[in-house]
Amino acid sequence: MKIYEFASAPNCRRVRMYLAEKGIDVEFAPVDITKGENLTPEFRSKDINKKVPVLQLDDGTHIAESVAIQRYFEELHPSPPLFGRNAKEKALVEMWTRRADFNLMLSVGMCFQHVSGFFKDRMNVYPEFGEDAGKRAMKFMGVLNDHFSDHEYLIDDYFSVADIGMVCSLDFGKVQNLRPDAEKHPHLIRWREQLKLRPSFKA
User: Fold this and answer.
1) DSSP state letters, 148-182
2) How many alpha carbons fall within 13 Å on the CB side of residue 99?
3) Which of 28, 54, 63, 184 is least enclosed by beta carbons within 10 angstroms?
4) Helix (H) or strand (E) holding 75
5) In the prediction, which pLDDT does 67 show?
6) How confident is residue 117, by pLDDT bands cut at 50, 70 and 90?
7) Which of 189, 192, 150, 185 is nearest to 168 (CA)?
């Protein structure tokens, strides 16, 4: 079993943080996306979307998508539970995970892809679209700040994979200088500082 990854990619970090929270050791195989190693026919046979991370099981099965990989390990190692402890929490974890992906990760990702120039050799880029995506990301940080004004974590006082996904999305914004502001987002910064105290934060 091993995980193909580009260590600095936010979705790879999501898996690393999750595994660290669980205390699970897995072999990692580097894939340099800056050199297009994920675009080869060999890698596409592992994931049709040519993305990282990808978990390769001992029987040759490949599981792509960070949340799918987390769910696989959750079934094998249910304690401590990070996808919710009851029906209500499981639904809320799913809700906030999707909010993190659609409202923050997607917006930051579109800003990065269309403004940074990183992908200009492999896709059409539209800087104006990217800049608008960055504005959407910053607007959502305001929504998060309001939420954290009376919540310790995304789901009340329960730390979950939703927090992992959200902080990885938030930190990814730094590549485009999309950062929470101390004056505008004090509660969001408080939440992030709290997560920094967890050993998994540096995974």
Assistant:
1) TTS-SSSBTTB--HHHHHHHHHHHHGGGGT----T
2) 18
3) 184
4) helix 66-76
5) 98
6) confident
7) 192
- Look at the block and give the residue holding tokens 């995304």: 154
Q: Is 199:17 a contact under the CB 8 Å cutoff?
A: no
Amino acid of residue 60: G
Q: Whole-prediction pTM value?
A: 0.95
Q: How far is CA 92 from the centre of its chain?
A: 17
What domains are defined for the chain?
2-76 (3.40.30.10), 87-202 (1.20.1050.10)
Structure tokens at 96: 């906030």
For 22-54, how does the pLDDT look when each residue is reduced to its tens digit (9 = 90+)? Answer: 999 999 999 999 899 999 999 999 999 999 999
- Among residues 107, 194, 184, the alpha carbon closest in space to that of 154 is found at 194
Distance between start and end Cα atoms, the chain = 19
pLDDT digits (tens, 9 = 90+) for 48-87: 999 999 999 999 999 999 999 999 999 999 999 999 999 9
Both tokens assigned to 69: 């990989």
Percent of the chain with pLDDT over 70: 100
